[in-house]
Amino acid sequence: MKRKQYPVEGAGLGLRRALLPELVKMDSNDVDFLELAPENWIGVGGRFSRQLRAISEKYPFVCHGLSLSIGSPAPLDTGFLKEVKNFLETYEVRCYSEHLSYCSDDQGHLYDLMPIPFTEEAIRYVSARVRAVQDILERRLTLEHVSYYAAPGQQISELEFINGVLQEADCDLLLDVNNIYVNSVNFGYDPYEFLEQIDGDRTVYIHIAGHYVEAPDLRIDTHGSAVIDPVWNLLETAYSRWGVAPTLLERDFNFPPFSDLLGEIDHIRSLQQKVARQHVANG
């Protein structure tokens, strides 16, 4: 398999303020890159600002935004986008990703990631907004397909919608294997078939995370627990199908001992090395 150029390499971890004491003192070989939400750091000063600068000098950064609201009926917030652009440039951020969803309307923020209707009209609407964002930021936008629990107004499949936006907007993909697994349980489809059909050639990096089991047929995407074996297996399959991409462990709360997080980072690396060896053996 031809090697692709990615913005970062290896295995990364989400930069959360609760983890700052550990992140500041960890060995530079413990993780390969860090991901943060720019909204949580824009305008922050004092001790947190100094710690962020120190960490940015040791590790490459990628950003995963929370409030772009690419599918919103409200106009794009160009003032916010200019702040994001400045942040990305200040910290030499390698990649900026956001959610293929919306979190605001003309009344303000909704404080949740809401599903965009799976329709051809929505593909055209979202794609135009993505192109506008890319023009303002002067860089490509990466979109993550999201976990969701209802599909209001659906006219086409989730896959058709995701692939349609990626192709019409000509943007990149943040492939989230936990979201695939969660949605496959909640909506009764085969996650491996989904992984096979998504436009994975556009992947620039991957997310993996834990989730909450609400019921046998309901999973909640929480990022608050350890990754389970079926999701690890799906990650290995993603590497085999689409290439060994850089992969980020998401953990947002209920933090275990930091050594446990580093153990999951090591497991990502072991899968990356395993599949890379297989690719070499297969020529």
Architecture blueprint of SSEs:
Blueprint lengths: L10 E4 L5 H6 L7 E4 L9 H11 L4 E4 L13 H13 L5 E4 L2 E4 L2 E7 L5 H18 L4 E3 L13 H12 L2 E5 H11 L3 H7 L5 E7 L2 E4 L2 E3 L8 H14 L4 E4 L7 H24 L2
Parallel strand pairs: 1-2, 1-12, 2-3, 3-4, 4-7, 7-8, 8-9, 9-12
Antiparallel strand pairs: 5-6, 10-11
Helix pairs in contact: 4-5, 7-8, 8-9
What does it look like?
The chain has 283 residues and is α/β, with parallel strands linked by helices. It has a single domain, classed as Divalent-metal-dependent TIM barrel enzymes (TIM Barrel), CATH 3.20.20.150. Helix content is 41%, strand content 19%. It is built from nine helices and twelve strands. The protein has helices spanning 20-25, 46-56, 78-90, 120-137, 158-169, 177-187, 191-197, 229-242, 258-281; strands at residues 11-14, 33-36, 61-64, 96-99, 102-105, 108-114, 142-144, 172-176, 203-209, 212-215, 218-220, 247-250. The strands form three sheets. Strands 1-2-3-4-7-8-9-12 form an eight-stranded parallel beta barrel. Strand 10 and strand 11 (218-220) form a beta hairpin. The protein is globular and about 50 Å long. The mean pLDDT is 94.
Relevant terms:
19% strand, 12 strands, alpha/beta, 8-stranded parallel beta barrel, TIM Barrel, 283 residues
**CATH architectural category:** Alpha-Beta Barrel
- Percent of residues in beta strands? 15-25%
Tally of alpha and pi helices: 9
Which class in CATH terms? Answer: Alpha Beta
Distance between the amino and carboxyl termini: 8 Å
How are the strands ordered across the major sheet?
Answer: 1-2-3-4-7-8-9-12
The CATH topology annotation reads as: TIM Barrel
Unreliable stretches: none
C-alpha geometry: globular
Biggest sheet record: 8 strands, parallel, barrel
- The domain count comes to 1
Q: Helix-strand pattern, N to C?
A: EHEHEHEEEHEHEHHEEEHEH
Count of distinct strands: 12
Helix content: 40-55%
Q: What integer is the average pLDDT? A: 94
What is the SS-derived class?
Answer: alpha/beta
**CATH homologous superfamily descriptor:** Divalent-metal-dependent TIM barrel enzymes
Radius of gyration: 18 Å
